[in-house]
TrEMBL record, chain A:
Residues 6-231 form the ABC transporter domain. This is ABC-2 type transport system ATP-binding protein. Keywords: ATP-binding, Nucleotide-binding, Transport. InterPro entries: AAA+_ATPase, ABC_transporter-like_ATP-bd, ABC_transporter-like_CS, ABC_Transporter_VariousFunc, P-loop_NTPase. CDD domains: ABC_DR_subfamily_A. PROSITE patterns: ABC_TRANSPORTER_1, ABC_TRANSPORTER_2. Gene3D superfamilies: P-loop containing nucleotide triphosphate hydrolases. One of its GO terms (molecular function) is ATP hydrolysis activity. It holds the Pfam family ABC_tran. The lineage of its organism: Bacteria, Bacillati, Actinomycetota, Actinomycetes, Kitasatosporales. It comes from the Bacteria.
UniProtKB/TrEMBL annotation, chain B:
The keyword Transcription regulation applies. Residues 12-80 form the HTH gntR-type domain. The lineage of its organism: Bacteria, Bacillati, Actinomycetota, Actinomycetes, Kitasatosporales. One of its GO terms (molecular function) is DNA binding. It comes from the Bacteria. Keywords: DNA-binding, Transcription, Transcription regulation. Transmembrane segments: none annotated. Pfam families: GntR. InterPro entries: Tscrpt_reg_HTH_GntR (IPR000524), WH-like_DNA-bd_sf (IPR036388), WH_DNA-bd_sf (IPR036390). This is GntR family transcriptional regulator.
Length: 298, 141
């Protein structure tokens, strides 16, 4: 049995004694080997959650276990890239990678780190200070990947990158997942950006978990339906419904077979996410995976 | 070797696209029995899709008896599909016909309509094969 990559139990974080809760009552379990999208609007608590898992913030209440231990003890096996990509501005690219090698004795994968940097046509003698945002992202990812982490936490990793670099670096990340079974958790407020690359979703809204689970399971638990207006949707759980003229369209969680005279369709991931964000009162859903044994890529 | 191209806006599930493109390569003789499919890692590095998507596509191909996974070695083609390799005389005749159609002033759509018409006349509509998942967008190729 492998430990889950992250397991949060009633996790909460409040900044300052009387501050608002950035994250509250957050419980989920992320099995190892998954590529997980952390999605939510700005200010939803995505960065707070990642910083808690990285051990950079202490929980106000509840707990989070990382790779079967506490976040601080797991740190040698975890790579974290902050939204701001903090690096030493006065070091050159080559010196930054040498620092990575020195700080991670016995683990450092110089080939991978070098390949990520080389993909960007970066001059190794250039100082970090003089790099563009996208180039800095590339160096920060090289540093995190060179550590050969078991868990990679990436906060908005793709925000600064042009479409070409985004595709290439996402390919590098997927290659890590396929080759080493690395668990990857990455946040974004753009669902479409992550849809093809992720198999697991954490949707956060207003500091709480709204959806958590395998993307396939979450999609299968919902249906988009159209029916005549005035139709009673009970007993199916309604996430969102709208009536236009004589037509009612809704996103529901079917409680059983749907009537044959409703038109039904499978929702897209983006529809699922947007419907939940537009309707904060819709209940959260975190199905427990029926099969916890999906093999990590051989 | 096949080079998968994923179209994010096609409405066809990604793993179905990989299945379809593999079958296309098998039909055209680009892949023949004994050939090795690219590893999941090679595919995901080139396409940036999730590794499980590739594995799901390969499992589907394996279920249909087209490929087999050999432990530690990779996934290999077991049998080809159809009998229309890229270099068959039939293809040369069709090329010839298409060139004549173009010379006589037919547009692309005219040719497609003609071809479909003849196809319908001589071949039964295929048993539309949907992968057994609840992805209604799967396009029967």
């Amino acid at each position: 049995m492998t430990d889950p990559a992250i397991e949060a139990t009633a996790l909460g974080k409040r900044f300052g004694r009387r501050g608002a809760w950035a994250l509250r009552d957050c419980s989920f379990r992320l099995p190892a080997g998954r590529v997980c999208a952390v999605v939510g609007p700005n200010g939803a608590g995505k960065s707070t959650l990642l910083a808690l898992a990285a051990g950079l913030l202490a929980a106000t209440e509840g707990s989070v276990a990382v790779l079967g231990t506490d976040p601080a003890s797991a740190r040698p096996r975890v790579g974290f890239v902050d939204q701001d990509k903090p690096l030493y501005p006065q070091l050159t690219v080559a010196e930054t990678l040498r620092m990575g090698a020195d700080l991670n004795p016995g683990r450092w994968d110089a080939d991978t780190a070098g390949r990520v940097v080389a993909g960007g046509d970066l001059d190794p003698g250039k100082r970090i200070r003089s790099l563009s945002g996208g180039q800095r992202t590339r160096v920060a990812l090289a540093l995190a990947l060179g550590k050969r982490p078991e868990l990679l936490l990436l906060d908005e990793p793709m925000a600064d990158l042009d479409p070409l670099a985004r595709h290439e670096l996402m390919g590098v990340l997927m290659g890590q997942a396929a080759g080493h079974g690395t668990t990857i958790v990455m946040s974004s407020h753009v669902v479409a950006e992550l849809e093809d690359s992720c198999d697991h979703l954490l949707l956060i809204g207003g500091g709480r978990i709204r959806l958590a689970g395998e993307i396939d399971d979450l999609l299968a638990a919902h249906a988009r339906v159209s029916a005549p207006a005035e139709t009673d949707l009970a007993p199916h759980e309604v996430v969102e419904s709208r009536t236009t003229g004589r037509q009612l369209s809704a996103l529901v969680r079917p409680a059983g077979p749907l009537p044959g005279d409703w038109r039904t369709a499978a929702p897209s991931l983006e529809e699922l996410v947007l419907s939940h964000l537009r309707n904060p009162e819709a209940p959260a859903l975190a199905p427990t995976p029926a099969h916890d044994t999906t093999e990590a890529a051989a | 070797m096949v080079d998968y191209r994923i179209d994010r806006h096609s409405g066809v599930a990604t793993y179905v696209q990989i299945v379809q493109q593999t079958k296309q390569a098998l039909r055209l003789g680009v892949l023949v029995p004994g050939d090795k499919l690219p590893t999941a890692r090679e595919v995901v590095e080139a396409t940036a899709v999730n590794p499980n998507t590739v594995l799901k596509a390969y499992r589907e191909l394996e279920r249909e008896g087209l490929v087999e996974a050999r432990r530690g070695l990779g996934t290999f083609v077991r049998r080809s599909l159809g009998a229309a390799p890229a270099d068959s005389p039939l293809r040369a005749e069709l090329e010839d016909w298409a060139a004549r159609a173009r010379e006589s002033g037919l547009e692309r759509e005219d040719v497609a309509a003609l071809f479909t018409d003849v196809l319908e006349k001589h071949f039964q509509a295929p048993q539309s094969h949907q992968p057994h998942q609840a992805h209604p967008q799967g396009d029967p190729s």
